[in-house]
Amino acid sequence: MPYPATGWRRGAYRGALCSLKENNMKKFQNQSIDLPCPGCGRTLEVSYYELYTRRKPTCKRCRSYYEITSSNASKLRSEVSKVERIFDKLEEILKDIKNDSDKMIK
Description:
By secondary structure, the chain is mainly alpha-helical. It is built from three helices and two strands, in the order αββαα.
């Protein structure tokens, strides 16, 4: 039976909520991005946490690295916090939708 006004099947909703919880538990700071090596162009996999703690992403092949300034690290830390708060709010909204939908179905 679809949820009222959404058309979502019960399983699809649970899948979306579980997926959001997994992403939220990992937290955005642990997500990785690919950066090209400044020396040889090889792909470096770097987490946002490594970037905003000013660790130097270093290429294993040529030993070139990125120098992370404190200004850029601070900006990134601030934006990562914003994204995590948005995920927390989204999770709360989805919980409210689920609770309201369960009341309407019963």
